[in-house]
Design a protein that fits this description.
Largest sheet: 12 strands, antiparallel, barrel
Strand order of the largest sheet: 1-4-5-6-7-8-9-10-11-12-13-14
Shape: globular
Radius of gyration: 19 Å
Structural class: mainly beta
Oligomer: single chain
Order of helices and strands: HEEEEEEEEEEEEEE
CATH topology: Lipocalin
Helix content: under 10%
Number of domains: 1
CATH superfamily: Autotransporter beta-domain
Length: 246
Amino acid sequence: MLATYIMKSLFPLTILTFFLPCHLPADVSKEIQLGVEAVAGYRSGYVYRGFELAESTIDFQVETEIALSNRTSLNLGSWYATENGKGDFDESAFFSHLRFKQSDQLTIGLSASYRHFGNSSSPLSAVFKDGVDVGTFATWQFNDDFSATAGAYYDFGAEAWYGNAETQWSKAISEKTFIALNTGISYVDDYYGRDGINDAYGRLSLTHHLSDTVSITPYLGGSLLLDSSDAGDDQAFAGLWFEVRF
């Protein structure tokens, strides 16, 4: 299919662009800058790539961003989620993102992660397999408030492709508070019984900075399946993140 061909083609094309020349400022700092963020959260339902994997869930994440240069950054992090109540689903993951800013508008990147899924009881929609997930993505920044990202990823656990295109919008409503809206659509190639157009998804969040280093973010989200023959249901969920930056 055309969409599958595009996803597979993105890998070599993106890697090639890393070797293209770009204009770096003469005063690029040689000192590596480091930032760390810790996040604890609760969500009423855990939806991953259009699949409902758990209901009421608590999650924890630690992520560090390393500025390798003015135009290159590396994110490294780990994640753990566990289901409350009757369910006993849990997930742990390690992830990395390498971003390279080609221009003021265009950023390209590579991602790699490993996920371990623990479900001793039957999950709600699909049994996800442990494995490495690698991908490539590109983001176009239209202005300070709005950007669009397209990505293609290969999941070695599922032995299948996943692709998405999404938009990110945010707007400050006060000195300490901003609202954000993420929307997207996804495509899969024989991914846990689904094939073709997958889901449309979105998340609306409100972040309030309690201090320079502490924030709280309530959010609402959902996933709408676009193929009526796919297993599973449309999903809606709510959650809260508590973020600390070092």
